[in-house]
Amino acid sequence: MKERELEQLLEIDTYLSLASDRDDVDVLDILRETMELLEEFAERLEDVDAEDETWTTSEGSRKFREDDEPRCDREFKKKMLENAPRSDDGYVIAERAHWLR
């Protein structure tokens, strides 16, 4: 999003407007970071193979999977850690919301 569009959000959104009145939070900075994350996520979604998707219909299909024994999908964990910006010893390292510090 362009800077002007973010500023317009501050003007029209009640919650953002209230938050922007606070001295301890830079709402515009938070919006910028949020939009960067969403844009990066959208770019990564472009690489997802649509053939792996599962489609169902509402007529006669089950909404829930059958319960099964819990299992660890090592391939999923490997892919998740490869996509994480930072990881250590099999765990994702994420930044705590700096505006809460």
UniProtKB/TrEMBL annotation:
Cross-referenced Pfam families, in alphabetical order?
Answer: GatC
UniProt keyword Protease, yes or no? no
What transmembrane ranges does the database entry give? none
Q: Please list where the region (Disordered) is annotated.
A: 49-69
Gene Ontology molecular function: transferase activity
> Which UniProt keyword terms apply here?
Transferase
GO biological process annotation, one example: regulation of translational fidelity
Basic and acidic residues: compositionally biased ranges: 60-69
The name under which this protein is listed is Asp-tRNA(Asn) amidotransferase subunit GatC
Q: Which organism is it from?
A: Methanopyrus kandleri
